[in-house]
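Reviewer 2 asked us to include a model.

Predict the structure of this chain.
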Amino acid sequence: MKQLPMKERSGSQAWLGPISLGLAVASWVFPYVNLALVAAACVCGTVSIVTRKWHSIDWTAVAGITLALGQAVLALLVFATSLHP
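Predicted model (C-alpha cells):
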C-alpha cells in the first residue's frame, strides 16, 4: 500500500499550534490566570493534533501542550506546598 505524502497544514487551522504555544508561554508570564491559559493552550493544541487528517503533526501544538502541562504541574506543586504548615 502506497503511503500518501504528508503536507503542511493550511488555512485557519494552521494557527492552532502557534496559538497553543503562545498561550503556554503566556501562562508562565501571567501567574494569576495561568490555569485558564493552560486549559486554553491544551484545548488548542489537542484540536490541532486531532484534526490533522493528511497533514503532518503540528510540533508547535505538541510543544504548547507540553509547556502548558509543565506550568500546571508547577502551579499545583506550589499550591500544595503553600497548604502545608
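The longest helix spans residues 59-83. DSSP finds three helices and no strands in the chain. We have added this to the supplementary material.
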